[in-house]
Design a protein that fits this description.
oxidoreductase activity, single chain, Ketoreductase, 7 strands, Rossmann fold, NAD(P)-bd_dom_sf, 9 helices, 43% helix, globular, Sc_DH/Rdtase_CS, 288 residues, oxidoreductase
């Protein structure tokens, strides 16, 4: 049976490489992107490289949770199951705090709320897979996160992009853990959820916005010291496809495909629950 995978942020960098590798393995790839023209170009490139004709673009702006909702609805209408959901899309954004039309801060929306909403909306479809998997992209940058301020969940005060990014990736890990517990509590035994760090990879995920002179300099010099997207994709592909992790859930894996303990300096069950509750409240208007 052909497996179906949805990969967000799949038209560039690690996401594109993950899509290519899974297409090579025979997956039906749902290739998410924001730009329909670019997605069509990447679709054709992957088909040409792999010979797999089952590469289908899905278009949505993940800064807009209504668009996330619409994408999920289309996927639910078009497919009878989803075997793997890879929440890959994310970014380190600029030094100016920005919000979407609903007033939601961009870093939190793209890195945390969009994947959280998408997971909620597509979970019934993933449950229809014999062995569903959810893979969330985090980052070793979560180790640089300070103490989260739940009174300022959307970084409205003293916004600093590195802090917002680090905390957002910490939240991804905490939500991954919480999802594993939620699945267990609901007696959903055929779905696993794990988080990965792809390593320092030469992509353009952080080059589009003005971050200030020092962060911009770091991002411009970083490719000299970074891995390739092909290497960066290996842990995500491993978590999506390997039989070795078929029963592992709620874990964090580093760029070498090794399970690793995340930074728990500020972790508590109450803090994890607070992140879940805040996210649930913010995405509630978009839940079916």
């Amino acid at each position: 049976m052909e497996k179906i995978v949805l990969i967000t942020g799949a038209t560039d960098g690690i996401g594109k490489e993950v899509a290519t590798q899974l297409a090579q393995k025979g997956y039906h790839v749902l290739l998410h992107g924001r730009n329909a023209v670019k997605a069509a170009q990447v679709q054709q490139a992957i088909i040409t490289e792999t010979g797999n004709q089952n590469v289908t673009p899905v278009i949505a702006d993940l800064f807009d949770l209504q668009a996330v909702q619409a994408m999920a609805e289309k996927i639910r209408n078009d497919y009878d199951r989803l075997d793997v959901l890879i929440n890959n899309a994310g970014a380190y954004l600029g030094k100016v705090r920005r919000t979407n039309a609903a007033g939601l801060e961009h870093t939190l929306t793209l890195n945390v709320l969009a994947p959280f909403l998408l997971t909620n909306l597509l979970l019934p479809l993933i449950q229809k897979s014999p062995a569903g998997r959810i893979v969330n992209t985090s980052s070793a940058m979560h180790r640089r996160a300070g103490r989260p301020d739940f009174e300022d969940f959307q970084f409205a005060h003293d916004f600093e992009p590195a802090r917002a990014y680090a905390i957002s990736k910490l939240y991804v890990i905490w939500l991954t853990r919480h999802w594993a517990q939620v699945l267990a509590d609901r007696h959903i035994t055929n779905v696993t959820v794990n988080a990965s760090h792809p390593g320092a990879v030469a992509t353009n995920f952080g080059l589009a916005d003005d971050k200030g002179w020092l962060p911009n300099l770091i991002f411009k010099l970083a490719p000299m010291f970074e891995s390739t997207p092909a290497k960066g994709a290996q842990t995500t592909v491993y978590l999506a496809d390997s039989p070795a992790v078929a029963t592992v859930t709620g874990a964090f894996f580093n760029q070498k495909k090794k399970r690793e303990r995340p930074n728990d300096r500020y972790y508590s069950a109450a803090a994890e629950q607070a992140v879940w509750d805040h996210c649930l409240a913010l995405v509630k208007p978009y839940l079916d």
